[in-house]
Design goal:
Length: about 140
């Protein structure tokens, strides 16, 4: 069993597709083991995306991530990191496979609806960033 962190980003929440994303998780036997809605401040978003702080789009990404509430979830399942990234689709929605979340709902390379951890080590950091042990079922 593996774990990953999912975020429904501010554009996804604003588009009223929280349920749609969750339905896709459930339809693919991915279990939600923690969930909450938060509205991050700048420090919190910068801490989360610290690996990207040298990237040219960092400032814009942070502004976007604090522009509204997000839904954060810890997910569990077999091979769930790869499986959930498969459901998300490529970072750039124009390159995402048809039927993926980003292909269906993203409008921009930045406003791409969802986040998913990319490796076990990042998943552990990211889940721990938002949830304590008592919040994970
Ligand atoms: P992910 O793992 O598919 O989310 O992609 P990355 O880890 O490479 O990037 C993190 C997030 O930064 C992406 O999900 C986008 O929201 C944003 N992002 C990535 N590349 C770009 C870019 O070239 N321009 C802008 N504005 N945002 C980007």
């Amino acid at each position: 069993m593996e774990r990953t962190l999912s975020i429904i980003k501010p554009d996804g929440v604003a588009k009223n597709i929280i349920g749609e994303v969750i339905k896709r998780l459930e339809n693919n036997s991915i279990k939600i083991i923690a969930i909450k809605m938060i509205h991050m401040n700048k420090n919190q978003a910068e801490g989360f995306y610290t690996v990207h702080n040298e990237r040219p789009f960092f400032g814009s990404l942070i502004e976007f991530m604090i522009s509204g509430p997000v839904v954060v979830m810890a997910l569990e399942g077999e091979n769930v990191i790869k499986k959930y990234r498969g459901l998300m689709g490529a970072t750039n929605y124009k390159e995402a496979e048809p039927g993926t979340i980003r292909s269906d709902f993203a409008t921009d390379i930045e406003k791409n609806v969802v986040h998913g951890s990319d490796a076990p080590e990042t998943a552990e950091f990211e889940i721990g960033y938002f949830f304590n042990n008592f919040e994970i079922i």
